[in-house]
Amino acid sequence: MKFKKIISLKSLIILGFVIAVIPLFLGVMYAAFAMRETAILGRAINYQVFAQTKAIRLVLQKSSDVERKARLFILLSDPALRQPYERESYENTRSAFKQALSELLKLHVDNKIALLANELSEKENLIYQQIMGSAAGDNASVAVNEAFQGLRESSNTLSREFESHVDHEFNELRQQSEILEQGLLIKGAVLLVVSFIFIVLLLVVLSRSMRQLDAAIRRLGSTELAEPIVVSGPTDLRYLGERLEWLRTHLMELALSKRQFIHNVACEIKTPLQEISEGAQWLASDAEAQGDAMRQSMALVLCANIEKLHTVSEELARYSQINAMSAIQHPQTVNLKEVLEAVIMDYQEPIAAKSLSIKKLLRPVAMSGVQEQLRGIIGHLLANAVQYSPVNGEIRIMLREAGGQVELEIEDEGPGIAPEDRSRVFEPFFRGKGMLDDANEGAGLGLAIVKEYVANHQGCVDIIDPREDQQGARIQVRIPLKEL
Fold first, then answer.
1. Model pLDDT, residue 439
2. Which residues contact 207 (CB under 8 A, 6 or more apart)?
3. DSSP 3-state assignment of 32?
4. What is the pLDDT of residue 85?
């Protein structure tokens, strides 16, 4: 918990960057050390092969010199013809040959090469013994020639074996380089995967917090204040979530205060309106009894306006109690088509008064909801359509189920709703440019009540564009279907 409290968005980004870079840094360091070891091993092998090649060449050269000096010494087989320096020269050549073999063996050559070198030395000793110890003659000459042939074969064998040894050394170096390259690729791939996993985890943490913030802001924007706002993740994002939660509670308090104020106003004006209405009715009756037509007309106008204020007061009280009533009303299975048909029947009188035609496209839809509120949604929308439709106009009603939602559309042929007013028509008391004269205006709460009822069913209501070659207001309600 303490670790979570100290992690901020900045520190999390830095930590993620460091964690992502460390494997890459380790990969580069491993590659550098591996290349360094390979270079050192290559230099060592090259130096060793160079020194051994130089020693082998010297041995082969001295072996050839020994053979040449030995043959010359044999040719001068008569001691009377030999000069003292010839034996000394032969001995010196043999010493040089022995020295070359000794230098070769000091280089820690392969065992097989060392054996061949010793064999070459033994054959040279055999030649020396035969030259110095045997008498001159044909048999001796044949034996010496065979010894020379053996010396040349040993030299050739040593040369071939050394070439094979050099090829083997470089093959091992190449194999080690290939193994190192494969290991480097594997370790690099593993480190990249580790870096990728850490980056993905970082993005998951940040994206989860951002999604929570986005969802919270969207709910606040659509006035869905019932669900608490909780944002997990870095400290600064959690702090932002806490401020949004404070804003949510503050908006709830403001909404509650507004509803309480509206309810108090509706209650306060109810009794005075009742008394004023009784007085106006008495004045109208008194004027009628005295035959004062002007006073009677004024009293009737006063009664009509009082009745209008009384209607506004009732709508205010109803609007202020929407959420309170929703808390005690329980959802039930509602056949929305039957409810819609019943509401249309209730409005037959105003529909007939304007000679309106109703075009219906209704599909049976059963859903779980509060029947009174669903009836109120249809009633307010239909009342607006009837009110703003011209005489002999047409009202189009569509009800269907689509994509797990109930879709209800009501469209009239009235003046419509201006595009700049569409975002505000659901506000209480708002009247747009397309409203009628004051005598026919309502309290401006109908669409606000519709929005509240729809929100209680987790749905949405929108003003959409009319169909082609049509005009007027087209209102669409979408409510998600719940399990029955």
1. 44
2. none
3. helix
4. 67
Instruction: Give the pairing of strands 405-411 and 366-369.
Output: unpaired
pLDDT confidence of residue 443 = 59
User: How many CB atoms neighbour CB 298 within 10 A?
Assistant: 15
Q: Specify the pLDDT at position 408.
A: 93
- Report residue 444 as tokens: 């401006």
Q: What does pLDDT average to in each consecutive run of 10 residues of the chain (484 residues)? A: 55 73 76 79 80 83 82 65 67 85 81 83 81 54 72 82 82 81 79 79 80 82 76 80 87 78 72 77 79 79 78 70 56 89 91 90 89 89 90 91 89 86 78 52 72 85 83 89 63
CB 307 within 8 A of CB 277: yes
The distance from CA 252 to its chain's CA centroid, rounded to whole angstroms, is 34
Tokens representing 292?
A: 């004062």
User: Alpha carbon of 168 to those of 35, 172, 204: distances in Å?
Assistant: 21, 6, 53
DSSP characters over 410-454 = EE--SS---GGGTTTTTSTT---TT---GGG---S-HHHHHHHHH
Distance of CA 436 to the CA centre of its chain: 52
473 contacts 411 by C-beta, under 8 angstroms: yes
* Encoded tokens for 56: 């082998």
Q: Which of 253, 256, 254, 245 is nearest to 219 (CA)?
A: 245
321: its two tokens: 């109690």
Q: Look up the pTM and report it.
A: 0.49
Query: What's the rounded Cα separation, in Å, for the pair 29 and 33?
Result: 6
Neighbours of 438 (CB within 10 A): 8
Looking at residue 329, the DSSP 8-state letter turns out to be: -
Task: Order across the sheet with 394-402: list the strands.
Answer: 357-362, 394-402, 405-411, 474-480, 460-464
Angle between helical axes of 9-75 and 235-290 (0-180°, round to 10): 150
336 is written with which tokens? Answer: 């929305």
Task: Tell me which H or E stretch contains 475.
Answer: strand 474-480
Which amino acid, one-letter code, is at 410?
A: I
pLDDT at site 345: 92
CA distance 386 to 377: 14
Output the pLDDT for position 323: 57
**Count of Cβ atoms closer than 10 Å to residue 172 Cβ:** 12
Residue 436: which of 361, 384, 365 has the closest Cα? 384
Which of 380, 402, 390, 391 is closest to 480 using CA atoms?
Answer: 402
Rounded CA separation 117/5 (Å): 77
Please give the full DSSP string across 331-398, using - where no structure is assigned.
-EEEEHHHHHHHHHHHTHHHHHHTT-EEEEEE---EEEE-HHHHHHHHHHHHHHHHHHSPTT-EEEEE
Token pair for residue 306?
């009082």
β partners of residue 182:
none
